[in-house]
Amino acid sequence: MLRMRLRRWLSLFLVLLIILGLAAILFRQWQGPVVPAYGMALHPLVQKVVATGRVVAASRVQVGSEITGVVVERRVREGDRVAPGDVLVVLRAEELEARVREARAALDQLRRSRRPQALAALREANVRVVQARREAQRRADLLNARAVSREVKEQADQVLATAVAAAQRAQLEADALAPGQSEERMLQERLAAAEAALARTVLTSEVAGTVLTRAVEPGDQVQPGRVLLEIARSGNTEMLVPVDEKNLATLRVGQGAQVVADAYPAQPFEAVVTFIAPAIDPQRGTVDVRLQADPVPEFLLEDMTVSVNILTARREQALVVPNDALHGTTPDTAFVWRVKDGTVERVDVRLGLRGLALSEVLTGLQAGDWVLLGGPYSTGQRVRLAPQSLPLAESGKLQTGSGVPG
C-alpha cells in the first residue's frame, strides 16, 4: 500500500516538473531571444580625425647649373648640412677665366693706352686748328692788300676746315674714351659678364638646410635644367597628411594633434594644424593638411611615415552610442532599436560628434536607455538583453576616429 502511494506521488511530481519546464520554455519564448544591447550613459568624449601621412620639409630647393660644363669637384653628399654660401659643386673654368683676363686687359688698355693717345691726338688737332686759323687770317689780309690771289685764300680756308673737322673727330674720340663714358662702360659690362659667367662655375647653397639627394659626380658634364642636388630647407618640419574630404567640415587651423612615426611608435609627439589645402584631390577624394611639430623630434627624417590623430572636438559629458547600433544614418540623423519594458521600438535620433566607432546622440535617447546591436528587428518584438560594454579608451575617455589611410 505504501509502495503504491509513493509511486503516485512520484508520478505527480514528474508531471509537475514537466509542466513547470514547459511553462518556463513558453515564458522564455514569450520573452523573446537574447540579443546584445548597449546601455546609454554619459561619458567624456573626444573626437579625432585619424590619417596617415609623411614628413616633409617646409620647402625643398633644387640646385642646378646655369651653364654647360664639366664637374671637377663635388663637396657635399646626402645628409650633409649646408649654410648659405657653402660651395656645393665646382665646374671646369679655364675658358671663362681666359675671358675674364681678356676683358680686364681690354679695360686696362683703355685706361693706360687708348685714352692717353686720344687726349694727345686731341691736343695735336687743336694746335693744327690754331695754326690753320692763323694762316687763313694772314692770307685774308694779303688778299685785301691784293698781294695774293683769291685761290690762295680759298686754299687756306680749306686747310682750316679740314683741321677743324679733325679736331672735332679727336674730341669725340676723347669724349668716348673718357672715364665713365660709353667705351669704358661697355668694357666694364663685358668684364662683369665674364666674371659672372666664371662665378657660375662654383655652385653654392642659397639656403641653410640638409642635402637630400645628389645626382652629380666629378667628370660629369652638366647642362642648364638638370637637377644636381636637392636640399631640404631648414625650418619647422611639417607632416603632410591627406585626409578624407568628408572630414573637411571638422578641420580647423590651430587644432592640436598627436603624431606617431612608424619607425618610433613608442615616442609620440605633439603637432598643430597649420594649413588646410583650398582644393580637393579629385583622384583620391582627399584634402591635404599640413601640421608642424614644435619642438621637432631629433629622430624625424624626410619622408618618414607618420600616423596622425587630429583632435577636432571634445565633450566633457556626452551621450554616446556605438555606430553599429545606428541604422539609416545620414550626416545628422539615424534611428536605433530601443528596448522598453522588454519590447523593441524604433526611435529616430539626432547626431552630434561623429566617428568610426562612436557617435554623440543629441536628441531621441537619454541615459539609462538600452539600444540593440545589429538587426533587423520589428516594432513590438520582445527580446532579452545581453549587455555589452562600451569601447572605452585606456584613459577612460571615449575616442572616435574618422579619417582615411594615407
CATH architecture of the largest domain: Beta Barrel
| Number of H/I helices | 4
Distance between the terminal alpha carbons, to the nearest Å?
Answer: 88 Å
Strand content: 35-45%
Question: What is the CATH class name of the largest domain?
Answer: Mainly Beta
Report the uncertain regions: 393-406
How can the largest sheet be summarized?
6 strands, antiparallel, barrel
- CATH T-level topology of the largest domain: Elongation Factor Tu (Ef-tu), domain 3
Q: Give the % helix.
A: 25-40%
**CATH homologous superfamily assignment of the largest domain:** Efflux pump adaptor protein, beta barrel domain
Order of helices and strands: HEEEEEEHHHEEEEEEEEEEEEEEE
Average residue-wise pLDDT = 82
Q: What is the domain total for the residues?
A: 3
**Number of β-strand runs:** 21
Q: What strand order characterises the main sheet?
A: 2-11-14-13-12-15
The gyration radius over C-alpha positions equals: 48 Å
Apparent shape: rod-shaped
Structural class: alpha+beta
Written account of the structure:
By secondary structure, this protein is α+β, with helices and mostly antiparallel strands. It has three domains: 44-56 and 235-401, Efflux pump adaptor protein, beta barrel domain (Elongation Factor Tu (Ef-tu), domain 3), CATH 2.40.30; 60-92 and 211-233, OB fold (Dihydrolipoamide Acetyltransferase, E2P), CATH 2.40.50; 95-198. It has four helices and 21 strands. The protein has a six-stranded antiparallel β-barrel. Mean pLDDT is 82; it is low at 393-406.
